[in-house]
């Protein structure tokens, strides 16, 4: 959601890219809300602060501990958002 920042001024220099990865947990509505939050917490635990993920020569780092949202019931599912803030130089 953020604009890339250019802090090095070479034409091929990387840009700093900040963003939020939002993961939506969709659980059956008849399931207890506490179970849905527990599952969302397990997803969040997969992305601890400073966790590094790499692909080829690109490194993405988790900036801070993920935020687990409130359980939002809908018609058939209970939805829980897990927001993971990241930082990348590419």
Q: How are the secondary structure elements laid out?
A:
Layout: E1 16-28, H1 33-45, E2 52-55, E3 58-62, E4 67-68, E5 72-73, E6 77-89
Please provide the count of β strands. Answer: 6
Binned strand content: 35-45%
Unreliable stretches = none
**Topology as H/E string?**
EHEEEEE
Radius of gyration from CA coordinates: 17 Å
Shape: elongated
The assigned structural class equals mainly beta
Described by strand count, sense and barrel closure, the largest sheet is:
6 strands, antiparallel
Report the span from N to C terminus: 16 Å
Q: How helical, in percent, are the residues?
A: 10-25%
Mean pLDDT score:
89
Number of helices: 1
Structure commentary:
The chain is mainly β. It is built from 1 helix and 6 strands; from the N terminus they run βαβββββ.
Q: In short, what is this structure?
A:
This protein has 90 residues and is mainly β. It has one helix spanning 33-45; strands at 16-28, 52-55, 58-62, 67-68, 72-73, 77-89.
Name a few traits of the molecule.
single chain, 90 residues, six-stranded antiparallel beta sheet
């Amino acid at each position: 959601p953020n604009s890339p920042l250019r802090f090095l001024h070479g034409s091929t220099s990387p840009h700093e890219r900040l963003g939020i990865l939002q993961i939506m947990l969709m659980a059956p509505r008849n399931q207890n809300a506490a179970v849905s939050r527990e599952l969302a917490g397990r997803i969040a635990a997969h992305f601890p602060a400073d966790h590094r993920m790499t692909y080829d020569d690109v490194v993405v780092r988790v900036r801070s501990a993920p935020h687990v949202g409130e359980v939002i019931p809908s018609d058939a599912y209970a939805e829980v958002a897990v927001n993971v803030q990241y930082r990348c130089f590419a």
